[in-house]
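Notes from the 1:1 (GR / supervisor)

We went over the backlog. Supervisor wanted to see one worked example end to end before approving the batch request, so GR pasted a single chain during the call. The sequence is below; no edits were made to it. Supervisor asked that the structure be written out right there so they could see what the output format looks like.
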Amino acid sequence: MEYLDIVDEKGNPTGETVEREYAHRHGIRHRTSHVWILRKRDEIEILLQKEV
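Structure output shown during the call:
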């Protein structure tokens, strides 16, 4: 189970948290980022995939 910080319309944290699935199901604003590091040779290889 992953909890996310809820943010207001300006992106400021409200001090509340919510489960990830619930936030996505109900459209609750939250912060997240995805970092992908790729290397292309003969085929694209994913070296790192992390959600922060």
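Supervisor's comment: The mean pLDDT is 86.
Batch request approved.
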